[in-house]
Amino acid sequence: MEPFRFQIALSFPGGHRSRIEKIASALAGVVGRERVLYDKWHRAEFARPNLDVYLPRLYHEQSRLLVFFLCAEYAQKEWCGLEWRAARDLLKRDEDGRLMFLRLDPANIPGLYSIDGYLDISILTDDEVAREILKRLETLVPSAVETQLTMESDSAAPDTKLAVTVMAEDHESDKARKLNPASATSRRQVWRALRSAVLLLVAVGLAYYVFTRDQTPDNSVTLRYPTIPVLEPEAAGSSSPINSEVMRLAEEWRSSFEERNLPRLMGLYNDTLVAYYTKRSLTKEEVARDIVDFFSRHASYRLTLSNWSLSTGNAGCTVAIEFDKQYQGKLLGGQEINGFVRSELIFQSGFGCTAEDPYGRFLIVSERDVRVYPPPRQRVIGPKRPPGG
Fold first, then answer.
1. pTM as predicted
2. Of the chain's two ends, which shows fewer C-beta atoms within 10 Å, N or C?
3. What is the pLDDT confidence band of residue 314, given thresholds at 50, 70 and 90?
4. Domain range for 258
5. 54-57: long-range contacts (C-beta < 8 A, 24 or more apart)?
6. What is the Cα–Cα distance from 94 to 88, expressed in whole angstroms?
């Protein structure tokens, strides 16, 4: 069982709320809003007597990582003082790994000494601060990550080559394994059997995909809802407000990915996704972890989208957009990568979307590559035909 209700708890003076709220929103985009202790998001819970006793317990006992935004104003605030007491007790208990000190200015803070490390965030952007907090959180979460890279060809999309298995375990489970080695061995055997079964299913699914993808006409994907003619970006914008909005969101998806703007990128996804490349039925947080892993392995990455095709259904509440995606980039080791694939994004609006009022916030519910094109040197020069034909 997860020992902490919150992954991150933020302690700050109210005078800096506007900046802290942006950082909190960026963190929530990765770990979930319910896993961030930010006072504004828990107003109903805090409307209670004896809050001076209740609040410090949330920081002390129910938060994995306590992040303190220190400044001159912090030392003068009573509520900050209560939260600071939780930090001091954790220091006494030798749990200083759960504390992270961020400085908004160089003011003197009682109980903080020159030997204590801190991060000066006055020179960092809000997104950079959020990334640093997430890096620190990663050192506290007990997990084992097994990464396997499957390289099919130099032109295959890197998104489809990475298979990541994440096994997260809390401290109590770790203690139980040490106390009962036989039980731990049995669990490992069960886990290995399950993993083998999953890998077998994935292999069968990939074989089915490879076999069937060439059985349908190129540049088309069979959908479960009616289709509309192929539209270029300009025509889509003038044809329908829905098409125009989806095209705008697709461009925002591309630019956010190139700029590595994780908070803005994750704001485009639904809380749960039907498909994400080779994976099925996963959460927004799982997608964020995949993207962060991708960013950590690439020094640069550029996308060029073209040959757009839109399909709509469900009274305009579901829109699938297909496009050719050409990517160029460089791995951290300096190796250059490039490729050419046909990709699909499916957007869905779940807020009062009807035929009479087909609006609402469109979010990504599926993202995948539907075809890998051969490298340019393998293409046949001849009569014009669809890519891959």
1. 0.40
2. N
3. low
4. 142-179+216-389
5. 55/79, 55/82, 55/83, 56/82, 56/83, 56/85, 56/86
6. 10
3-state secondary structure of 215: coil
For residue 199, give the H/E element and its range.
helix 181-213
In the chain, the number of structural domains is 2
pLDDT (tens digit per residue) in 331-385: 877 888 888 899 999 988 865 455 444 456 789 999 999 888 887 654 445 555 5
Task: Dump pLDDT digits (tens) for 254-263.
Answer: 999 989 899 9
- Say which residues have a Cβ less than 8 Å from residue 352's Cβ, sequence separation at least 6: 359, 360
* pLDDT tens-place string over residues 267-283: 899 889 999 998 889 89
- For the record, the structure tokens of 179 come out as 């106390």
> What is the CB-side half-sphere exposure of residue 280 using CA atoms within 13 A?
5
The neighbouring-strand residues paired with 304 are 326
Q: How far is CA 118 from CA 100, 132, 317, in A?
A: 7, 12, 48
Residues 29 and 131: their CA atoms lie apart, in Å, by: 11
Identity of residue 332? L
